[in-house]
Design brief:
- With 464 residues, this protein is mainly β.
- It has an 18-stranded antiparallel β-barrel. A five-stranded mixed beta sheet has the order 1-2-10-11-14, with no helix packed on it.
- Strand 19 and strand 20 form a beta hairpin.
- Helix 3 packs antiparallel against helix 4.
- The longest helix is centred in the first third of the chain and has 16 residues.
- The radius of gyration is 24 Å and the shape is globular.
């Protein structure tokens, strides 16, 4: 089914979305905004771990990606590779490199043209042509290391330098699993966020302390609480076509110290499942097909949902900002899933549709309904954030087997109540998924987002 955990994860500052804007391959969603489209959710595996496995299936171990650059001459196409990966029993490290070839090809082509036009051989022209190969803006490099602390805790440190940007991006992640909880401490300098309009924001300093209960697989209670601190004004980076240089940063990314808690309840009900064939009717000589993905092995129809509430207290950072010291809200999602096929045969054995309705802010939706009933003009004074949060989102996810382990998937999101026909497409992600039967529920995902003009190849395990 569509991932319902996005409802509670989107309340906090550490919800990772896939993006090749950095070598880490992730950006955070902005708290308080509509839940992101399901296909944007990042893999649970670290990017360096993905590259370590993906390079076995790509020529020369080079994995392509597309992401707009701050310098348009660099283009969007890049080549990524894991250069080094030493490890021991309780420690590993990795060095990742990235190369953007467009600017190099353009500059070298121009230099060759100048050499041909020269009446005499000029050594300086040749030197100028070779200098293009050492242009630092073409190359990005990142270093990761993870250290096991004790029997279960781990510390991950990373630093990366992007060729088209100044400074070094640094991050620390400490994870300590408890008996029925996970304790996580994260610090990033800077931290990259992605809002629902496709704009990226760099927060100069971001620190998170979070305690989360283990999320239930089907039905149960889930809660989280933590403290977030950010410092410095957010800066917009790599503006897309829908962005503007003078756009105001989301209020939740502004400097301040905030304590937040959220609790949710998730439930699932089976509507239909075909009866199992009797063993006596089976032919011993008939071939047995194993599913390409264990989580997609059964045809079914289910309905599921999640409801929850959050409480936030801004301890600092309220001066000069329209932020309430204490605020509470409710959120929820409802989803219906239908799957035909067992995803085990070569053709036509998987068709799956998920339809999910999200309400990211029940209070904003209630105000919108109240103003609509009264016909009040006060709703016109709402900010863009309030207007966006007040609109429910409809997510439609379609998956179709192409051949064997290859599945075509479309993740789309519509803003209800907007546009000419009562709903307007807000985001869509296209992807091809290659399921890895040896991993039981793992797949290689190649996705592209027209809205962000981004695309990358990822490895996802026990995610669909």
């Amino acid at each position: 089914m569509a991932n319902l955990n996005s409802a509670i994860d989107s309340v906090f500052w550490d919800h990772n979305l896939s993006s090749p804007q950095t070598l880490e391959g992730t950006a955070r969603s902005v708290p308080g905004e509509p839940f992101p489209v399901d296909g944007a959710r990042a893999s649970r595996s670290h990017r360096i771990q993905q590259l370590s496995l993906l390079r076995e299936g790509f020529p020369l171990g080079v994995i392509p990606a597309f992401a707009p650059s701050s310098d348009k001459r660099l283009g969007s196409f890049s080549l990524n590779s894991l250069l080094l990966s030493p490890s021991s029993d309780n420690w590993w490290a990795g060095l990742v490199g990235q190369f953007k070839p467009k600017k190099l090809f353009t500059d070298v082509k121009t230099s060759i043209r100048n050499i041909r036009k020269a009446e005499e051989w000029d050594l300086q022209l040749f030197k100028d042509a070779t200098k293009h190969f050492v242009d630092k803006s073409l190359y990005s490099v990142g270093l990761w290391t993870q250290i096991a602390i004790g029997s279960s805790s781990s510390l991950l440190l990373s630093a990366e330098r992007l060729g088209d940007k100044d400074g070094i991006r640094k991050k620390l992640i400490f994870v300590h699993p408890l008996e029925k909880h996970d304790l996580t401490v994260e610090a990033a300098l800077p931290d990259l966020f992605l809002d629902h309009k496709g704009r990226f924001w760099d927060v100069p300093e971001s620190i998170n302390f979070d305690v989360s209960s283990l999320a239930p697989e089907t039905t149960g209670l889930h809660y989280r609480f933590g403290v977030h601190k950010s410092r410095g004004d957010p800066q917009q980076v790599n503006a897309t076509a829908e962005s503007s240089d003078d756009a105001a940063a989301p209020a939740s990314l502004m400097p301040g110290l905030c304590a937040k808690a959220a609790v949710s309840y998730r439930a699932k009900r089976l509507l239909w499942r075909p009866k199992e064939e009797e063993e006596e009717d089976e032919d011993d000589d008939s071939p047995v097909y194993l599913p390409y993905d264990l989580r997609l092995k059964e045809p079914h129809a289910t309905v599921s949902g999640i409801v929850g509430s959050s409480l936030a207290a801004w301890i600092t950072g309220r001066d000069g900002m329209k932020r309430s010291p204490i605020s509470a809200d409710a959120f929820g999602s409802a989803c219906i899933t239908f799957q035909k096929g067992r995803f085990s045969k070569l053709y036509g054995d998987l068709t799956r549709v998920d339809a999910r309705v999200d309400v990211s802010s029940a209070s904003a939706l209630a105000k919108r309904i109240f103003h609509a009933i009264r016909g009040s003009s006060g709703s016109s004074k709402k900010t863009d954030e309030d207007a966006s949060a007040s609109s429910p989102r409809l997510n439609l996810i379609f998956q179709q087997q192409v051949a064997g382990p290859i599945v075509f998937k479309v993740d789309s999101q519509f803003e209800v109540g907007a546009g000419k026909y009562g709903a307007e497409m807000e985001d869509v992600i296209y992807s091809l998924n290659y399921s890895l039967r040896l991993l039981e529920s793992g797949k290689v995902v190649a996705w592209y987002s027209p809205k962000r003009k981004e695309g990358m190849v990822e490895l996802r395990v026990f995610e669909f």
